[in-house]
C-alpha cells in the first residue's frame, strides 16, 4: 500500500561532490552525507520557466506566450558552526581564483531516515559565505550559510535514480 502522507521537511542529507571526475570520491561524499548530515536548513530548491511574449499585429485580444529558458535560484545551505572549515575553504578557493565547481545531492528522508526523494544540482559555485552573527547576550547557536549558484536542478524520485543522474551528469 502506498502512503500519501506528506514527508517531514526536517529529515534531509546533503552531499557536495568534491571531485566530480572520481567515482570513488562521489560515493564517499554520498556516504558522508548519511553519516554527518549536519545542515539545519536548505532552501532554493526551485525551477522556473521564463516566458517569451509575442504581440501579433492585428490580434488585440491576447498576447501569445511561449516557454523560454529554465532559471534556477541559488541554493542556500545553513548549518551550525563546528570544527570543519570545508564550506568556507570551498568559497575561499574561488576568491583566490583556484576554486572548482561541485555537483551536489540533497536527499529528503522519511520518518525512518530512509531517503525518498533526491535533488541533484550541477556545476555549483559558492557565491556567498556568511559567518555567524556573534552576540554575547544571546544563547542562539552559531550558524554559517553558503549560497550556491548552479546550472541545473533535477528532481529524482529515488536515491538510486539520483546517483544514476549524477553519474550521467559527471560522465561516469
TrEMBL record:
Top-level taxon of origin: Bacteria
A Pfam family matched in the record: Phage_T4_gp19
Molecular function (Gene Ontology), one example: structural molecule activity
PANTHER family hit by this protein: CONSERVED HYPOTHETICAL PHAGE TAIL PROTEIN (PTHR38009)
Protein name: Phage tail-like protein
Native species: Cereibacter azotoformans
Amino acid at each position: 500500500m502506498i502512503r500519501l502522507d506528506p514527508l517531514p521537511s526536517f529529515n534531509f542529507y546533503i552531499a557536495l561532490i568534491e571531485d566530480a571526475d572520481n567515482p570513488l570520491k562521489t560515493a564517499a561524499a554520498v556516504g558522508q552525507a548519511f553519516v554527518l548530515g549536519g545542515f539545519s536548513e536548505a532552501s532554493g530548491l526551485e525551477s522556473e520557466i521564463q516566458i517569451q511574449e509575442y504581440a501579433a499585429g492585428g490580434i488585440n485580444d491576447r498576447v501569445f506566450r511561449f516557454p523560454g529558458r529554465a532559471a534556477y535560484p541559488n541554493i542556500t545551505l545553513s548549518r551550525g558552526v563546528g570544527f570543519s572549515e570545508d564550506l568556507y575553504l570551498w568559497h575561499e578557493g574561488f576568491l583566490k581564483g583556484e576554486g572548482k565547481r561541485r555537483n551536489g545531492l540533497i536527499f529528503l528522508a522519511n520518518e525512518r531516515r530512509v531517503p525518498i526523494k533526491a535533488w541533484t544540482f550541477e556545476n555549483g559555485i559558492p557565491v556567498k559565505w556568511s559567518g555567524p552573527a556573534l552576540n554575547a547576550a544571546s544563547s542562539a547557536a552559531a550558524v554559517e550559510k553558503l549560497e550556491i549558484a548552479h546550472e541545473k536542478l533535477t528532481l529524482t524520485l529515488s536515491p538510486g535514480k539520483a546517483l544514476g543522474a549524477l553519474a550521467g551528469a559527471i560522465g561516469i
